[in-house]
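Hi team,

Below is the intake form for Capsule polysaccharide biosynthesis protein from Lasiosphaeris hirsuta. Please confirm the fields before the structure is written into the shared record.

FORM ID: S-0412
PROTEIN: Capsule polysaccharide biosynthesis protein
ORGANISM: Lasiosphaeris hirsuta
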Amino acid sequence: MAVGTLALFYPVFVPASAAAVAYAGHRALYVDWRLLLTNFLTGPGRISRILLVMFFLTNWKSLPLAWTVRVFHAFLYHVVRRPKKTLAPRSLFHFSVTSSRTSLLETDYNMHKSNSTYFSDLDVSRSHLITHLLGPAMPRVGDNAKNKLVLGRDGEVIKGSFGIGLGAVFCSFRKEIAPLQGYEMWSRILAWDRKWLYIVTHFVVKGKVRPTAWDGGPGGRMGPTRVVAADGTTEVHDWSKFVIATAMSKYVFKLGRFTVHPAIVVEANGLLPPRPGDGWRGGETGCGTLDELGEINGQNEWGWRHVEQERRKGMEFAQHFAALDGTNALFDGGEDGAIGSFPLG
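The structure came back. Fields below:
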């Protein structure tokens, strides 16, 4: 997702999309669909047309502009269908589940989903997660001149268009996905630091895992429920055996050229509990100190310490991912030579 995309989404793309749909509906009223369908299925060249339709249906997500449709569908879907109730802090680390299926055009010469195509699916899955979880906060941060949520070092109000930038993506592959096989993408916030919001996404075998509950959003039929033991407790399973691949991504929030602390965006959406002192933005790392964390009391109520403990667990993995930025320094411009320059890259 490029920086500035969301700044244009509400004032430009939403009205344009609504106008396009209205025009298409107006034109559809003048089409004799029954005659059109009859001619399509029985007229000369029908076999070629039917095969072409089957090709489009099995490969629609790989067609030109399909990526754009999928991503902006995620935006529109959550603008229209976002639940009225405010999500609780516990939802901050919950999964967003998106289903998909491997198209024939995504299949490589090994007859499974090409590794490169995982990244376009990640764009869609992250768009669902961020728009649903943090969408209401984005206009508030974007109108910073009014809300004064983002301040500079001298207390000045930061101005500029709000946007999100994708900084990096890492993906680890465990199993293959066969042609036309369905799968699910489970994305959630892993952690954040002073600059980056880290997101983890698991590609999961479709229909094998179902969450114990939904947070109020639309929940589909996700397969069998978790197994319940004789004493009424949920049995512990190795859910990782259903994981096909795992990816980590990092986002940066911007107001113009100014980097916005991810905690400000999360807090603007009401997902951060009250914090002691400077809390989220205090200490050397900008994320609080260990002394501030203290002991956690009352496991059923998510307070600041619960959220901070979960964030720190995620940072144990995210910090290694962030360290890979240093590999840029390994590029020496071929000072000791290069193997060769090859065509059709």
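SUMMARY LINE: Residues 295 and 305 are 8 Å apart (CA to CA).

Thanks, M.
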